[in-house]
Prior knowledge:
This protein has 13 helices and 14 strands. By secondary structure, it is of the alpha/beta class.
Amino acid sequence: xxxxxxxxxxxxxxxxxxxxxxxxxxxxxxxxxxxxxxxxxxxxxxxxxxxxxxxxxxxxxxxxxxxxxxxxxxxxxxxxxxxxxxxxxxxxxxxxxxxxxxxxxxxxxxxxxxxxxxxxxxxxxxxxxxxxxxxxxxxxxxxxxxxxxxxxxxxxxxxxxxxxxxxxxxxxxxxxxxxxxxxxxxxxxxxxxxxxxxxxxxxxxxxxxxxxxxxxxxxxxxxxxxxxxxxxxxxxxxxxxxxxxxxxxxxxxxxxxxxxxxxxxxxxxxxxxxxxxxxxxxxxxxxxxxxxxxxxxxxxxxxxxxxxxxxxxxxxxxxxxxxxxxxxxxxxxxxxxxxxxxxxxxx
Length: 347
Ligand code: SAH
Ligand code: SF4
């Protein structure tokens, strides 16, 4: 049997081509799109479509949904963490964070990850599969429905490496920003990467207005290679050059993520070297005390170290903040909830 078509991953033009190729007028595509936007996942609910078209959709298409397997709400702030499952039983995590200017969701782009960063729970678990564009959208839709609110932004910072699944991610961005879809502003979408340099160039060639975050986590290649295998393939000089180009091409300031790991990358010398590497770049550094993941042996830098590190950057005019750890009681750093779920014998 032929594989069914992923209806919600289709762009408006593709949906139109599908209905017209099947002998239906073009406006049927718009009607289907409206049902999808309402979150309908059962073809029988698409009441304004003729019965034959509904039958055709049932036999040849499917609608992705993200089912809530688990939901944790932080007692400290209003952070909500979800474990979602898809049609094949695979699970990913997503986190909704509330900020002054609205709520943002952190979504996953893959089940697992191939990149193997040594501090990361997702990286430790290996790779299972890419998510489709519709599965990325479904995480946003499910959270919106569950919380009864409209999310104002999305960060691709959950499980997986977005640039290792770029085609589906680009399709997701196109659908999420489309006025017929979720209508999110591109400037409210942030893609985080561990630094796959050629893919950064491919992304910037699309001239999207999305924000780029780069997981740096070290001031030089020697330290970076210890925690991030990707640094062996793509050294820092080339990575920082790509970031400068991104800023030039898109006008969007790049954010660098830097997890402070005690005794690994948090010395004053590291801070000075980092400041030198980033000087004049028009960037922002997000310092995050590393979340200890069991089995990694890493612990976060103490408060004194964090302060010293951020001060050295500030003195050298590098914009830096120590990120509030939201939802610290619910393991809000991605990969940990799914890890626990697997250990207990879940899918
Ligand atoms: N693969 C992409 C996006 C997903 S990871 C990337 O690496 O950028 C999202 C962010 O969480 C990255 O900045 C990653 O380095 C960081 N991260 C992963 N494990 C972490 C941990 N244990 N503590 C703090 N940050 C972590
Ligand atoms: Fe993958 Fe990002 Fe985790 Fe590295 S930090 S293993 S790239 S998800």
